[in-house]
Amino acid sequence: MAFFLRPVDVIRLENSGPDSWTVYWKRNFDFLPGQVVALSIFPSGVQRLYSLATGNHAEEVGILFNLAPGGALTPLLQAVRPGHRIYVSDPFGSFVGFKGPAFWIANGTGVAPFLSMLDSGLIEDKVMIHGARTREYFLGQETFSSLLRESYVRCASADQGKGLFQGRLTTYLSSRDWIKTVPYYLCGSASMIVEARDILISRGVPFKNILSEVYF
Ligand SMILES: Cc1cc2nc3c(=O)[nH]c(=O)nc-3n(C[C@H](O)[C@H](O)[C@H](O)COP(=O)(O)OP(=O)(O)OC[C@H]3O[C@@H](n4cnc5c(N)ncnc54)[C@H](O)[C@@H]3O)c2cc1C
């Protein structure tokens, strides 16, 4: 499906971790934290979806992306520089954050909607459970740890050390009981989401309380 895209000028491209970048432009729409845009490098080029990763009151809006080697879009996106023109749709999507308690569960660039929710002021009563292989791959960890403090859990499948749960995110989920009455937001790879969802359901979390956004 092709979305209608408008031109915007890149303000900057920031390195956000190993093989990960955030590209910013001047905010040209209102949105709800957690929503996505379609984006392309050319007016009628290949389009891909990205979660907005910045607060909904910020002057600049940004998306966090991973370089997918051999991918149709991200190698070109990684080469954009300030002043380059890119093309973005209006925001859309129902994976949106609200005030009140919630568990956020993410891997890879799946942290992006939660960065937007935090930057939009949705901090109180949130717990973030974050999975990655090693410590340098926890994208956005400085933001999460400074705002969520002990409500931020990093599960490292191939690393160990102070502040890390040693093991996969799904191992962490399997090792605990979970509150059944609050929403669980899952974002990232399909395999993580399916596994995490099954664990939560087996722990008695109702299906209706599990929201997911599958990236790849
Ligand atoms: C609702 C939604 C929201 C999304 N939000 C984001 C986001 O905020 N940030 C983001 O980086 N991606 C996000 N994605 C994925 C994004 O749309 C692209 O699929 C991704 O950037 C790869 O695009 P590409 O054209 O470079 O690679 P493609 O040509 O589409 O794919 C190349 C190969 O890379 C694999 N691949 C795709 N994405 C990734 C990835 N992120 N990491 C590792 N391997 C991958 C694919 O399985 C494929 O084999 C989202 C997808 C959806 C459906």
Q: Which small molecules are bound?
A: flavin-adenine dinucleotide
CATH superfamily label of the largest domain:
Nucleotide-binding domain of ferredoxin-NADP reductase (FNR) module
Briefly note the CATH topology name of the largest domain: Rossmann fold
* Domain module count: 2
Beta-strand content estimate: 25-35%
Any idea of the CATH class of the largest domain?
Alpha Beta
Spatial order of strands in the largest sheet = 4-3-6-1-2-5
Helix content: 10-25%
- Gross CATH architecture of the largest domain: 3-Layer(aba) Sandwich
Q: Mean pLDDT, as a whole number? A: 97
Oligomeric state of the chains present here? single chain
Terminal CA distance: 17 Å
Beta-strand segment tally: 12
| Major sheet | 6 strands, antiparallel
- How big is the Rg? 17 Å
What is the overall silhouette? globular
The poorly predicted ranges are: none
Write up what this structure looks like:
The protein is an alpha/beta fold and 216 residues long. The chain folds into two domains: 6-88, Elongation Factor Tu (Ef-tu), domain 3, CATH 2.40.30.10; 102-214, Nucleotide-binding domain of ferredoxin-NADP reductase (FNR) module (Rossmann fold, 3-Layer(aba) Sandwich), CATH 3.40.50.80. The chain has five helices and twelve strands. It has helices at 74-77, 112-119, 141-148, 169-174, 190-202; strands at 6-17, 20-26, 36-40, 48-51, 60-66, 85-88, 102-107, 126-132, 152-156, 164-166, 184-188, 210-214. The longest helix is centred in the C-terminal third of the chain and has 13 residues, at 190-202. It is globular and about 50 Å long. It starts with 5 loop residues before the first strand and ends with a strand. The structure holds flavin-adenine dinucleotide. Flavin-adenine dinucleotide is lined by residues 36, 48-51, 63-66, 68, 70-74, 108-109, 112, 213, 215-216.
